[in-house]
Write a structure and sequence with these properties.
By secondary structure, this protein is α/β, with parallel strands linked by helices. It contains nine helices and twelve strands. The protein is globular and about 55 Å long.
Length: 257
Amino acid sequence: MLPTPCHVVGDVHLGVASRESELALLAFLRQIPSAGGSLVVMGDLFDFWFAWRYAMPRVGFRTLAALADLHESGVPVLWIGGNHDCWGGDALAAETGAHYTLAPWTGRIGAWQCHLAHGDGLREKEDAPYRRLRTVLRHPWSIAAYSLLHPNLATRVAMASSKTSRKGRARDGGAGLLAVATAQLSAPDGPELVMHGHSHVPTLVKAGRGIYANAGAWYLDQQFVRIENEGIGRYRWHAGAEPELLQEIKRPGSEAD
């Protein structure tokens, strides 16, 4: 179980994100210990990540250090791997202390029974070609072969090929992932809260029997989601000021409902 308040951020895409965006993320991460609770990273923290045996990308090292500081201060960090930071989860976990997983995570966040997944490959028809490609890219033989490339060359290749999957918002406006979540939330034994990343579309809506949330893409607009026992809010981060509450849904039956 993850304690509340739980801060959720996703799709930071360090490596192509602006310096201002990364500095805002660092400020955001550094204020979390004062609130306690936990942190969830919904994937694609990096635009490209690969763990070689003796090398690692220099991009985002301050953010990795901030995650490690959170872990050492007693704040649990859950990292759902995305399609851009799926190679090297063991290294990321070792460096930061985060619980890193490529599989969907099911469990409780405070009072909420949750299902969390990055969102890549979940749409049944639209993502079928990608699922086939993903099987090849994540195969141990492919990873071993890629590790033989010099890190500078490997990074240039990866960054050049990643443009299409990070560019702006999802063409369907996030409708595909909302449909996937609604089906899960409508099941009699389904979760109360489903969260995705990937689409880059900030979303907080009632769906099925529960709530669907997507923190959007930090590198585009510095939005995040905060989960409390009494409700869930979507916020925008502002340096030097209180986060701006954009939207809130109260938990059914809560005193504030």
